[in-house]
């Protein structure tokens, strides 16, 4: 017994000195060369031994022999730096987290002020920022979306939406789309379309079907069939533009027709705007482009302004009132905490004040035109460049070409989405605040790398 205690003390001494070193580093504005070497070594070794060594094979920031590993350390605006001080323009944008930029001063300010007063809520009294944020969301979301349930992530927003649709409808069938991405917890994963993520975890939630995204006839026939078999559809869940699937924009009029079908069959329409929301596509919410009002909308990613993890499920009163009699039917401890709400409120204010959705349209057009110009003469490599606002996809004929381009751009200080396993379409989703000079540099780099890469 006593030896056990002794051993614990010894371990804690080691842990304590390690913690001290790390906490000291957190406090530093700049790191020395020795610090940088130690940080890199510790990061790579601990990823290997304690996080998941698989990442060291997959991340393009690590060379084959792990001789070089880019370890991020600081960020601001549209850029971040690695621990050695090398700067990158961030065109991955955390897959759509950084709509108002990295550490936007207005968001940081609101969160800091809130942090000085109260970080998390009592869980029992009425917390004011939740109420005020819910009111603001009712004001800015399309149509009569009115009630909000706050969460910490995209997948939680989707879980909330699915449960709400079940509560409301007493139905259990959901229709999602091929190439959809809704998250990776068991409920949202049921809507996600990709086999590699789903198959190992089957059976998932009962009742999910997938139809071809953009194919209204297939949706109609599926809903008709569901009605005849008694598998009535609780909801259709869609991303208005598919992000993870490779920036797929549905045909003109599709979303409107989906809305009509949902109404005809008494199904709810859920828009997963986790990636398309908060100004990304040139409107505050992508639904506005098609003037379709969903019954439930899911938000996350940029909702917390790139400072706090935050998300929301926003629904019409008719739907949400199912949860009025027992508000404890679906809860989360941290969802809607004061820091997250402060971040979201400041984010919405920044988007409106700086007209960032409009800016996304303008800069997006400029960006896409520039990329298209550079792709001329490379039709053997580039299949298509498309996008809406600052949600841009560059589709290649082959995964390998996409990977080489994204890797080449990274070596030249530009981060775009494109991994070893998913590079057919590289995604470009920079902060909506990105400067034109930065866009020019990205376009130049794209052109230069295209010249070097083989078809
Ligand atoms: C990223 C994403 C999610 C999942 O969000 P997490 O915060 O990673 O759980 C869900 N839906 C869409 C459309 C997304 O892009």
Could you walk me through the main structural features you see in this protein, from its secondary elements to its overall organization?
With 455 residues, this protein is an alpha/beta fold. The protein folds into 2 domains: 249 residues, 3-Layer(aba) Sandwich (Aspartate Aminotransferase, domain 2); 97 residues, Alpha-Beta Complex (Aspartate Aminotransferase, domain 1). Helices cover 45% and strands 16% of the residues. It has a 7-stranded mixed beta sheet with strand order 4-10-9-8-7-5-6, sandwiched between helices. The radius of gyration is 23 Å and the shape is globular. The protein starts with a helix and ends with a helix. The site of pyridoxal-5'-phosphate has 16 residues, from α7. GO terms for molecular function: putrescine--2-oxoglutarate transaminase activity.
Instruction: Report the CATH C-level class of the largest domain.
Output: Alpha Beta
User: Order of strands in the sheet with the most strands?
Assistant: 4-10-9-8-7-5-6
CATH third-tier fold name of the largest domain: Aspartate Aminotransferase, domain 2
Number of strands: 15
> Could you name the CATH homologous superfamily of the largest domain?
Type I PLP-dependent aspartate aminotransferase-like (Major domain)
Low-confidence stretches: none
Instruction: Look at the helices and sheets and give the structural class.
Output: alpha/beta
What would the average pLDDT be, to the nearest integer? 94
Mind describing the biggest β-sheet? 7 strands, mixed
- Name the bound molecules: pyridoxal-5'-phosphate
Number of helices: 17
- In percent terms, what proportion of residues is strand? 15-25%
Per CATH, the architecture of the largest domain is 3-Layer(aba) Sandwich
């Amino acid at each position: 017994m006593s030896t056990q205690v002794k051993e614990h003390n010894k371990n804690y001494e080691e842990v304590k000195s390690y913690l001290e070193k790390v906490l000291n580093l957190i406090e530093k504005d700049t790191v020395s060369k020795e610090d940088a070497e130690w940080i890199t070594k510790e990061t790579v070794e601990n990823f290997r031994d304690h996080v998941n060594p698989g990442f060291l094979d997959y991340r393009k920031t690590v060379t084959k022999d792990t001789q070089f590993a880019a370890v991020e350390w600081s960020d601001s605006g549209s850029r971040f730096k690695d621990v050695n001080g090398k700067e990158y323009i961030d065109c991955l944008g955390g897959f759509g987290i950084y709509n108002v930029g990295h550490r936007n001063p207005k968001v940081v300010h609101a969160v800091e002020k809130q942090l000085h007063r109260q970080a998390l809520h009592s869980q029992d009294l009425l917390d004011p920022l939740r109420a005020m944020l819910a009111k603001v969301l009712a004001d800015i979301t399309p149509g009569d979306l009115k009630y909000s349930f706050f969460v910490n992530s995209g997948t939680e927003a989707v879980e909330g939406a699915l449960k709400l649709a079940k509560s409301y409808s007493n139905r259990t069938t959901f229709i999602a789309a091929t190439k959809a991405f809704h998250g990776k917890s068991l409920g949202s994963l049921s809507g996600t379309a990709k086999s590699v993520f789903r198959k190992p975890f089957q059976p998932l939630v009962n009742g999910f079907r997938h139809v071809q995204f953009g194919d209204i006839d297939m949706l109609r026939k599926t809903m008709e069939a569901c009605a005849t078999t008694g598998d009535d559809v609780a909801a259709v869940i869609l991303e208005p533009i598919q992000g993870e699937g490779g920036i797929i924009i549905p045909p003109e009029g599709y979303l409107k027709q989906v809305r009509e079908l949902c109404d005809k069959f008494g199904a709810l329409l859920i828009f997963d705007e986790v990636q398309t929301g908060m100004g990304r596509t040139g409107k505050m919410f992508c639904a506005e482009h098609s003037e379709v009002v969903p019954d439930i909308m899911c938000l996350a990613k940029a909702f917390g302004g790139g400072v706090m993890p935050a998300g929301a499920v926003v629904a019409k009163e008719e739907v949400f009132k199912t949860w009025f009699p027992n508000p404890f039917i679906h809860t989360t401890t941290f969802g809607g905490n004061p820091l997250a709400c402060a971040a979201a409120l400041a984010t919405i204010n920044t988007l409106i004040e700086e007209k960032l959705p409009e800016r996304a349209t303008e800069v997006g057009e400029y960006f896409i035109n520039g990329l298209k110009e550079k792709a001329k003469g490379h039709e053997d490599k580039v299949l298509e460049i498309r996008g809406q606002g600052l949600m841009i996809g560059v589709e290649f004929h082959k995964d390998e070409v996409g990977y080489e381009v994204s890797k080449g751009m990274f070596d030249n200080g530009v981060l775009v989405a494109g991994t070893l396993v998913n590079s057919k379409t590289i995604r470009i989703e920079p902060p909506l605040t990105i400067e034109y000079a930065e866009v020019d540099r990205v376009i130049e780099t794209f052109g230069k790398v295209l010249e070097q890469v083989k078809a």
